[in-house]
Specification:
By secondary structure, the protein is mostly helical. It has helices spanning 16-25, 39-46, 58-62, 83-96, 102-110, 114-139; strands at residues 29-31, 51-54, 75-78. Strand 1, helix 2 (39-46) and strand 2 form a beta-alpha-beta unit. The protein starts with 15 loop residues before the first helix and ends with a helix.
Length: 143
């Protein structure tokens, strides 16, 4: 019988400070996968690093393509998971590279902070509760 090998993923984990240092010194962060949110894209942007990403899923919501948002762009999006599309995106990034501003990219990432999400969510719940209460009062003739 062959023993199963269980990978030790902790062996590949770097301390946050090391990851932040790498990301903040990177020319760009390239991400060619598709995720619902893609927290790693926001983490790279939080370090002021422009992202080059496959423009679907979470990337389409978290990365502002500088070609569409010249004043506040945070990266370059590409439309196909092909070598050619990725090479083109990297080439495009090099064309726009000097226009990216680390502080602007960091500021954009702050919009995805837990505290911001919590605050927006609570406001949404409060508005929905108020609307529900208003409709309930109307229905029961209290207003």
């Amino acid at each position: 019988m062959i023993d199963r090998i269980t990978p030790d993923f902790d062996a590949f984990t770097l301390p946050d400070v090391v990851v932040q240092d790498y990301l903040s010194r990177a020319k760009a962060f390239v991400y060619a996968a598709c995720e619902d949110f893609g927290i790693v894209l926001v983490e790279a942007q939080a370090c002021g690093t422009p992202t080059i990403a496959y423009g679907v899923g979470g990337a389409a919501e978290t990365v502002l393509d500088i070609r569409s948002y010249p004043e506040r762009g945070t990266g370059i999006l590409f439309s196909a998971q092909t070598t050619t599309a990725l090479i083109t995106a990297i080439s495009t990034f090099e064309t726009y590279r000097q226009q990216f501003q680390a502080e602007r990219i960091r500021t954009h990432a702050e919009g995805f902070a837990t505290s911001v999400f919590r605050s927006r969510y609570l406001r949404l719940v409060d508005r929905a509760t108020q609307q529900w209460q208003s409709r309930a009062k109307l229905k029961h003739g209290e207003i």
